[in-house]
Amino acid sequence: MSATSVTGKGAGAAGNLKGPGNGRNHFVPSVTPHVVAADEIALVAGAATVEVPGLSGVNYTVQAQDITTPSNTVAVTKTNVSSTLSRLTFAGTGTDVVSYIVVKMGQAG
C-alpha cells in the first residue's frame, strides 16, 4: 500500500514519517559509513604515527594518499587496544606529506 497524499493529511496519508519522530536521527548514523577524522601529516624518514583516542570499536577503515607525490605508495597500520582504535602508523617515502581519512564502516547489510 502506498500513501496517496503528499501533504501528510487526509485518506492515505503516510502520517508522521518525516523528521526526528521517525527514528532517522538514530538509525542512519548507525548504518551509514561516515568520516570521523581527516588530516594531513608529514612523514619523517618515511614514517609517521597518529594517536586517535576515543574511537571505540574496531570497525574503521583508513584511506591515505601521498599528496607530495601521488604515485608513491603509503602503507597504513591500525593498532587496536581493548577494542578501541588507538593509533595509525603510516609508512611512505622520505618527507612526503600524507593526507588521510578515518571512516567508520556502516552496519547495514
Task: Tell me what the structure shows.
The chain is mainly beta and 109 residues long. It has 1 helix and 6 strands. The protein folds into 2 domains: 1-31, no CATH class; 33-104. It has one helix at 24-31; strands at 34-42, 47-56, 60-66, 75-81, 84-91, 97-104. The strands form 2 sheets. The protein has a 3-stranded antiparallel sheet with strand order 1-6-3, with no helix packed on it. A 3-stranded antiparallel sheet has the order 2-5-4, with no helix packed on it. The longest helix has 8 residues, at 24-31. The two termini are 25 Å apart. The model has no long low-confidence stretch (mean pLDDT 82).
Number of helices: 1
Query: What ranges have pLDDT less than 50 throughout 5 or more consecutive residues?
Result: none
- Proportion of strand residues: 35-45%
- Name the helicity range: under 10%
Briefly, what is this?
With 109 residues, the protein is mainly beta. The chain contains 1 helix and 6 strands; from the N terminus they run αββββββ.
Topology, element by element:
Elements: H1 24-31, E1 34-42, E2 47-56, E3 60-66, E4 75-81, E5 84-91, E6 97-104
Antiparallel strand pairs: 1-6, 2-5, 3-6, 4-5
State the main characteristics.
elongated; 109 residues; 1 helix; 6 strands; 3-stranded antiparallel sheet; mainly beta
